[in-house]
Amino acid sequence: MSSSSLNKVTVGGLLVTLGIIFGDIGTSPLYVLKAIVGKEAISEETVLGGISCIFWTLTLQTTIKYVILTLRADNKGEGGIFSLYTLVRRTKVPWLVFPTIIGGAALLADGVITPSISVSSAIEGLRYFDPAINTVPIVIAILTALFLIQQFGTKFVGRFFGPVMFTWFLMIGVLGILSIVHAPHVLAAVNPLYAYRLLAEHPNGFWLLGAVFLCTTGAEGLYSDMGHCGRKNIRASWGFVKVMLLLNYFGQAAWLVGQEGAFLEDRNPFYSMMPDSFRWIGLIVATGATVVASQALISASFTLINEAIRLNFWPRVRIKYPTDLKGQIYIPSINWMLYAGCVGVVLFFRESSHMEAAYGLTINIDMIMTSTLLVFYLSLRRYRSFIIFLFIAVYATIEFSFLIANLDKFIHGGYVSMIISLAMIYVMWAWYQARKIRNRFVEFVKLKDYLPLLRDLSHDFSIPKYATHLVYLTSANYTEEIEAKVVYSILQKQPKRADIYWFVHVDVMDEPYMMEYKVVELIKGNIVRVDFRLGFRVEPRINLMFRKVVEDMVKNFEVDITSRYESLGRKNLIGDFRFVVMEKFLSLENDLPFYEKIILDTYFFFKRVSLSEERAFGLDTSSVTIEKVPMVVNPVGDIPLKRVK
């Protein structure tokens, strides 16, 4: 969608929103009530109490917290925990990085569980036709096809997402109405008294909150995908989605109260309330909806990692842009990591009922982390203290109650999602912390002290010319500074004579799609600094961007890029450009504390297997020189070496 269409509600916008935003939360009727009833005998008290909890969870957690409040916290139209972090980090509270990393990792772990449980829940409907069927190979085949098509982009398939989800929501709503007419008294469960009785009086009532929570797991994805559709389209379509979801939930409740005293066993109330003649159609539509839900979460994972890379929370990995749609990306390493995780989950649990135990715990933690950051956002926006304290009181109670209930799942399978989440947290933390350690020991010098030397070197014809234009990437944030290693590289390591020296700096900005640059001529026609200001969602194609800068400067007669070689200059040929990238490695001359050694070893391991510096900055050219620079963080002390005769 274009950026302008995000700011207004349109029929097309609403349709796309149904396909992209509500896939996860929209397919929750496939497993939520089944999880609430579990293996116990069906009782009206449990069913009505459970449906009351669902109603109020969707109202308080999804509608009020996310659709009304959290969607306000947009960063130039973008949402998600990393976008929220960019809004609140100006508070200069250093520990906010912890909830950000934990929340991002938890959402990635959810990306492994959601496709597995959604597709499994839908395909298990085949057992109504053949109870002995093994659904695992079918589920894996669907997941394999889904992850294979990611590399081609979803522009074509995406056109069908909206209509598929509209059909799905319309179907579940109508099915719910047809079932409710047989037991309309279930509608009384909108009274919160039913929820209170379940939680306070039922022996296991409080622990059922772990199953109830599954109805709102897609709320965090709803916020993360805001940039694709816009706040107004999400809010406008949520009314329709919520009504359809509630109709289906109440319809399942109506069917369940008619089965009081029986056991669900392998039956799913979602399929059981359907007319027998309609079940095949229901199965096909449900399968399509779960594929859409899975696709939405995979795309959200790509976006999440892309933002994490730009904010230095994740190693640089190869990113592809398979279509011309804004924001659509494909990250091969993440795609196949998610695929391996999904297949592993399916093979390990085999049944969606078993996956329910692993599902919900990490996303619950993610929601708590989002709430933590949101408190700081409300404070920054100068909301009244009363509103902030009310928000903390209400959502701390709700989300920590869900967390305590979800912790009961840990030994039954929740440890799987926690292990995945902890692995992600470790990678993010190690990468973030290692860069802080590394940057602590980067030495900067005043560039003005070396400008005369650089000018003299440029005109010293006793030294062979290294390049007409010599371009260095620098991490110095200030124009008047430069890394000591860059000066050493030019003047001492191998004196590099060039006609023009360029220093290029890339600054990642909080605005998602900013693309600006600034040029400072330190010595006219001899030494130039270029600062790129790129949003955290913009691919840093420095090779192309630098070329554009040079073209603009040539048009404005600010620089002459004609070759300075006499024979070539007469023919008006363009001079050669050579980029130099300084790549650090951990020197053996370090005596590191245990913690820093582990962090830096992890950092350099992922650095070796991740994207190289030149590829990460889009320097897809043969004219790149990589200079290895030893990184000495903590030099080894005096060596007790004794000289003998």
Cα shape: elongated
**Helical residue percent?**
55-70%
Number of domains: 2
Query: What is the CATH first-level class name of the largest domain?
Result: Mainly Alpha
Explain what this protein looks like in three dimensions.
- The chain has 645 residues and is of the alpha/beta class.
- It folds into 2 domains: 4-435, Amino acid/polyamine transporter I (Up-down Bundle), CATH 1.20.1740; 444-631, no CATH class.
- The protein is 55% helix and 10% strand.
- It is built from 26 helices and 8 strands.
- It has a 6-stranded mixed beta sheet. The protein has a two-stranded antiparallel sheet with strand order 1-3.
- Strand 5 and strand 6 (527-535) form a beta hairpin.
- Helix 1 crosses helix 13 (231-257) and helix 4 packs across helix 9 (192-201).
- The protein is elongated, with a radius of gyration of 29 Å.
- 44% of the residues are buried.
- Residues 1-5 have low confidence and may be disordered.
Could you outline the blueprint of secondary structure elements for this entry?
Blueprint: H1 11-20, H2 23-26, H3 32-37, H4 44-69, H5 81-88, H6 97-123, H7 136-148, H8 155-180, H9 192-201, H10 209-212, H11 219-224, H12 226-229, H13 231-257, H14 269-272, H15 279-310, H16 332-349, H17 352-355, H18 361-380, H19 385-407, H20 414-440, E1 444-446, H21 451-458, E2 465-473, E3 481-483, H22 484-493, E4 497-509, E5 515-523, E6 527-535, H23 542-555, H24 566-569, E7 577-586, H25 594-609, H26 613-616, E8 624-631
Parallel strand pairs: 2-4, 2-7, 4-6, 7-8
Antiparallel strand pairs: 1-3, 5-6
